[in-house]
Specification:
The protein contains no helices and eleven strands. It is an all-beta fold. The strands form two sheets. Strands 2, 4, 5, 6, 9, 10 and 11 form a seven-stranded mixed beta sheet that branches. It is globular. The termini are far apart. The relative contact order is 0.32.
Length: 118
């Protein structure tokens, strides 16, 4: 099993920044990539970004390109999401997820709330 714990969310004004963190533990070698997803009130959960543990592949949703940066520290089993130039529409619960090797996004954290408001 893989356990994921997110942190770093909060209330921020439009234009502000946050750094979200995800700590992974457990049988991490059974996974090949980590991702960030978000779910806004009344909307479906959507993909934001992913990074392979090898660091050789990074993908972003169009809504995240240019403002969000995903990174990882394999030794510490940490994944980060730097979110800049935040907009009210970025308000959501942000989830960290781990993708099982040859499988799907089977492991999820509890989420961290990001609220962008004046």
């Amino acid at each position: 099993q893989v356990q994921l714990v997110e942190s770093g969310g909060g209330l921020v004004q439009p234009g502000g920044s946050l750094r979200l963190s995800c700590a992974a533990s457990g049988i991490v070698f059974s996974t090949d990539a980590m991702g960030w997803f978000r779910q806004a009130p009344g909307k479906d959960r959507e993909f934001v970004a992913l990074i392979r543990w090898s660091g050789d592949s990074i993908y972003y949703a169009d809504s995240a390109k240019g403002r969000f940066t995903i990174s990882s520290d394999t030794a510490k089993k940490m994944v980060y999401l730097q979110v800049n130039s935040l907009k009210p529409e970025d308000t959501a619960v942000y989830y960290c997820a781990a993708r099982r090797v040859h499988g799907g996004w089977d492991y999820w954290g509890q989420g961290t709330q990001v609220t962008v408001s004046t």
